[in-house]
Amino acid sequence: MKLGMFTSGYQRNPLEHCFEDAKRFGYDYIELWGGRPHAFAPDLKAGEISEVKKLIEKYEMPVLGYTPEHNAYPYNFMIGSQRQREDAVGYLKLCLDMAKELGSDYMLISPAHAGYYVTQEEIWSRLIEAVKPLTEHAEKTGVKIVIESLTPYESNAFKNARDMVQLFAEIDSPYLVGMCDIVPPFVQHESIMSYLELLGGKMYHFHIIDGEQGTDSHIVPGEGSIPLPELIKELKYVNYNKTATLELVTGYINEPRLYARRAIDRVREYMKEAGY
Question: Is the pTM higher than 0.90?
Answer without folding.
Answer: yes
